[in-house]
Amino acid sequence: MINVVKIGGSLLSLGSIDHILADFKRVLSKNKVILVHGGGKEVTEIAEKLGKKQTFIISASGIKSRYTDKETIEIYSMVMAGKISTEIVAQLQSIGISAIGLSGVDACLIKAERKKRLIIIDERGRKRIIEGGYTGKIISVNTKVLKMLLEAGFMPVVSPIAIGTEYEILNVDGDRAAAYIAGSIGAENIIFLTDVDGLFLEGKLVKHLSLNEAKRIMKKVGHGMDKKILAAIEAIELGAKRCIISSGKREFPITYALEGEEKTVIEK
Q1: DSSP assignment of 87-146
Q2: Domain 2-267 belongs to what architecture?
């Protein structure tokens, strides 16, 4: 059984994630696991320390994302595949887990098509077309390399960076990178660990959604969670069995996501 776990940047920015990484040891006794990490907040902090102000845009569908120009993709890949991935792999090794860090560039793990233009909503609520920068739309995942590593007893730790069709480095959203990996490999579960218990609508935790219900509520969901709902839909449509959105603040967060009740589950 393969589970894909996405650790959001909101958790990484809170400080220690030792309790999450320690729980992988418990989960690995029964499951194979692929970890995908975020880290957008740290990218922003380091970029601005380097004097590169970050710009965020709203797509025509209402999704907020980073605008990635040449300088930004260089910083993004440095922080994601360099600093964050290396630190997570080192922590996993320290507790006896044979982790291996990969970016989407390695072995063309995540291949994407560079977006030539983006349709955005400007500050006046008007649609505008801008140059696409170094943002990619995922088109394929090399599941062969992931399966090979899992069978050899390694736990892949994936940074959400893609390789373009012209072999340029591209920024792809971490939640959607996890979704494409989970769907392509036919994961039993894709687990999004975040800083809340799941999806809340009108102040109440939504514990279960069908795929069609998830599609219908997309426009009601706020920034941040909307990407996770979109990613859940993509993962299930691509072949994952179930999506779980759960809190990464619990003592055993992955175990709780699989066995606890206070979470959001999306499935067909």
Answers
A1: HHHHHHHHTT--EEEEETTGGG-EEEEEPSEEEEE-TTS-EEEEE-TTBEEEEEE-HHHH
A2: 3-Layer(aba) Sandwich (3.40)
Listed by start position, the domains of the chain span 2-267
pLDDT in tens, 44-73: 999 999 999 999 998 887 888 899 999 999
Q: Is residue 100 classed exposed, middle or buried when 0-12, 13-18 and 19+ CB atoms within 10 A define those classes?
A: middle
Kindly report the pTM of this predicted structure: 0.94
For residues 237 and 234, what is the distance between their CA atoms, to the nearest angstrom? 5
Does residue 14 register a pLDDT over 70?
Answer: no
Q: Please report the sign of the dihedral spanned by the C-alpha atoms of residue 170, residue 6, residue 18, residue 144.
A: negative
Phi-psi region of 189 (alpha: psi -120 to 50; beta: other; left: phi over 0): beta
Q: What is the DSSP string of 223-246?
A: TTHHHHHHHHHHHHHHT-SEEEEE
What is the C-alpha separation between 14 and 146, in angstroms, rounded?
A: 29
